[in-house]
Specification:
The complex is a heterodimer of chains A (302) and B (256). With 302 residues, chain A is α/β, with parallel strands linked by helices. Chain A is built from 10 helices and 13 strands. In chain A, the strands form 3 sheets. Chain A has a 6-stranded mixed sheet, with helices on both faces. Chain A has a 4-stranded antiparallel sheet with strand order 11-12-10-13, with no helix packed on it. Helices cover 72% and strands 0% of the residues of chain B. Classes of the chains: A alpha/beta (302), B mainly alpha (256). The interface between A and B is large, with 44 and 35 residues.
Chain lengths: 302, 256
């Protein structure tokens, strides 16, 4: 059987006294987009950098396409987009991409790829004169130019404007359609929800949840509103049907979960009236990955 | 609109020579494009050669001024490219994550070092041509075996590359920038490049003669101006520096 794109078991990585990755296990399937989601400092980049062969694990096993991550044979098969930098500042945009292309046997056409990523007007621009978003797109181009089987993208849309972010999402979709395995890190839940076949939520170096975005967020809907902090929720809970839940998180933000129907809405607004508060920004929505993260860790994702 | 691109995986490394040539070409372009590096590798050596040949500002210890200066300036050119330029460029490449990024491509570390060496030798070849043409125009009449001179230049390149990579591997990029320029100046002053070692006090001379720049300068001068066959002493000094510095650099170099 074909080995998974990435297979991590009980991975540990320490820097001095700090444990960045603390017994992390996860699997990224071939041909799928796997998003590693977590707040800054959760251990995302450390995990990816070990997979890329840049860092050594302190404990645990990591297999990339069935091989040890630092195996030379993996280099042509794996494309890498660093979180930042990696290009000599004076190197011209197209010059860098052409150079990287020369390292591969059957590369994509650098010119076509630059056009695809909206960099055609900057072929002669030195890297240091590109905007942050343009630098990111060039790094993305260099990650895929060698027609790899697996691509690691570390925060691919950090610092991109909405248009460039959509271009990046589109490209990830095309990679997936072409059968490329993609592992990306992000702290944008919308990105993970939108792109990923599988989301691995990590916090403090451990996996706290994994599954498809739909499984993680569930079908449940919820009612949210903002009001004065510290309202007593017991009375409301008594008035709501059994199986409902109400909580304030963070302060001043109220979330009611349960069978969200007109009756529930009426109960909540009646309770607000009785408390003498106006519910601001009242809306009904599906749970987001951010809610899932908050529930699992008690912390905000960003 | 957007061109169609086929992302279907088709991985594979390019042939090793093609990767090394591509990287060497990029390194050469980077060196020739960098203004500060050109100042160091081309302009300063040529200015020293022309200035001190034409104007009797320094005492070269009697004899033909160009015959004294040309070999020294050739040695200086080798040092500026193999040591100063390479140390600074490599230090900043590590700092900017370029070494790390290249490590994720099929180009191996050995291939990268080979490309860097090829680029240094290519730039040195340009320097040698420019300096020799200027020196000939100033009336230089070189003697000796080109083979012996080339051997000295190659061993000198190895020794200075080792020292440059040792420094770039140990210090931060900014510290490398400062230190590499300082060492360049000190070796320019104390290595017999333009000021004859004979002018230094007898007590320090034996130490100065063991510097790699003095060995290279002295060796080239013995061959090109004196017509010596193979300056074994100078070659031995350079070989020891090369072995020691490359060995130490290989052990201590940090890629990230």
């Amino acid at each position: 059987m074909e080995s998974p794109a990435v297979e991590i078991a009980d991975l540990v990585k320490r820097y001095g006294g700090t444990t960045a990755v603390d017994g992390l296990s996860m699997l990224a399937a071939r041909g799928a987009v796997t998003a590693v989601l977590g707040p800054n400092g959760a251990g995302k980049t450390s995990t990816v950098e070990i997979c890329e062969g840049f860092r050594k694990a302190d404990a645990g096993t990591v297999r990339v396409l069935g091989s040890a991550p630092d195996a030379a044979a993996l280099r042509p098969r794996v494309g890498v987009m660093l979180q930042s930098g990696g290009v000599p500042p004076a190197m011209r945009c197209a010059e860098w991409l052409r150079l990287v292309a020369r390292f591969y046997a059957r590369p994509l056409d650098p010119g076509a790829l630059l056009e695809r990523l909206g960099l055609s007007d900057h072929v002669r621009t030195p890297y240091r004169r590109l905007s942050g978003g343009q630098q990111q797109r060039l790094s993305l181009a260099a990650a895929v130019i060698g027609r790899p089987e697996l691509v690691f993208l570390d925060e691919p849309t950090a610092g991109l404007d909405p248009q460039a972010r959509h271009a990046c999402w589109e490209l990830v979709g095309e990679l997936r359609a072409a059968g490329v395995s993609v592992v990306l890190t992000t702290h944008h839940m919308d990105e993970a929800e939108r792109l990923a076949d599988k989301v691995v939520i990590i916090d403090r170096g451990r996996v706290v949840a994994e599954g498809s975005p739909a499984t993680l967020t569930g079908a449940e809907r919820q009612l949210r509103f903002r009001a004065r902090p510290g309202l007593g929720l017991e009375e409301l809970l008594n008035a709501l049907p059994a199986g409902s839940a109400a909580k304030e998180s963070p302060a001043g933000h109220y979330i009611i979960e349960g069978q969200v129907d007109p009756e529930l809405l009426a109960t909540v607004t009646a309770w607000c009236a009785a408390e003498g508060v106006t519910a601001d920004d009242l809306r009904i929505e599906r749970r987001t990955l951010e809610d899932v993260f908050l529930e699992l860790t008690g912390r905000e994702l960003r | 609109m957007s061109a169609t691109l086929d992302f279907t995986p088709a991985p594979g490394a390019a042939p090793f020579p093609r990767m090394v040539l591509a990287q060497a070409g990029a390194e050469i372009r980077a060196m020739l494009r960098n203004g500060e590096q050109l100042l160091l590798t081309m302009i300063i050596p040529v200015l020293l050669l022309v200035g001190f040949s034409v104007a009797p500002l320094i005492d070269v210890g009697g004899g033909d001024r160009v015959a004294f200066l040309a070999p020294g300036v050739l040695a200086l050119a080798v040092m500026s490219t193999a040591f100063t330029g390479q140390a600074i460029a490599t230090g900043f490449e590590r700092r900017y994550g370029v070494l790390r990024r290249l490590g994720a491509t099929p180009l191996s570390r050995g291939g990268l070092m080979l490309a860097k060496t090829a680029a240094v030798i290519a730039v040195e070849a340009i320097q040698v041509v420019v300096i020799v043409v200027v020196a000939l125009a100033l009336g230089w009449q070189p003697h000796g075996s080109p083979f012996a001179a080339a051997l000295l230049v190659l061993l000198g390149t190895a020794a200075f590359s080792g020292l440059g990579l040792l420094m770039a591997g140990l210090l931060r990029a900014e510290a490398t920038l400062a230190a590499a320029n300082l060492v360049y100046l000190l070796l320019l002053a104390a290595g017999g490049v333009v000021f004859p070692l004979a002018k230094f006090p007898a007590s320090v001379r034996p130490v100065l003669e063991l510097l790699p720049i003095s060995a290279l300068t002295g060796g080239l001068r013995a061959v090109l101006s004196g017509g010596a066959a193979l300056p074994l002493g100078a070659l031995a000094v350079l070989a020891v520096w090369a072995l020691a510095s490359l060995g130490l650099a290989a052990r201590t170099f940090r890629w990230e």
